[in-house]
Amino acid sequence: MKNIVIFASGSGTNAQNICEKFKDNTKVKVAALFCNNPKAKVIERMKQFDVPVHLFSKEDFKNEEKFKSELAQYTPDLIVLAGFLWLIPSYLVNAYPKQIINIHPALLPKFGGKGMYGHFVHEAVLKKKEKEHGITIHFVNEKYDEGSPIFQAKFEVKKTDTIEDVQKQIALLEMQYFPEAILRVLGI
What's the CATH number for 2-186? Predict the structure, then answer.
C-alpha cells in the first residue's frame, strides 16, 4: 500500500477528488491531510473519507525536526500539493526527493511563480490573450512552480472566454488528470 499525504490550503476540490478516486483502491491510500488554514473548507471535505487532518502554523512549518517527525508518522510515499500556497522548504524537498508533486493551473513555465494561483493566473492568461491554457503537474523543488514537469494538458482559449469559463475548463482537466499522474508517479 502506497501512502499519499495531501497538503491543501483552501476549498479542497482536488483533495476531495483524489480521495474519491482512491477510496476503494487497494494500492493507494490517502493517509492524511496537512493544512495550514484552520478555516479551509478542505477540512470539512476530509471528514467523509475519515482522513486525519493535521493543522499546522508557519512556525510549525519552519521547525524542521518537529514537522518532519509529524509527517513521518504517516509514512508518505508521495506528498501531493492540492491547492497548497506556501513554498515548500528545502528540508522537505531534500527529505522527499521526487516525492512531492504539485498541480498548477497554467502551462508552465508561463504564468508560474509566487502569487500566481487561482484567478490571478486566469486573469493574466486572458489579459495576454493567450490562445491556449491548461494545467501542469510537476515535481516540487525549492522554487515556486519550477520543478520538473510530469504532465501537461491544454485547451483552446476562445476570444469570448471569461475567467469563469477558463476556471471550469481547468477544473475539468485537474479532476481528470491529477489522480492519473499520482498513479504514474507512484509507479502503479
Answer: 3.40.50.170
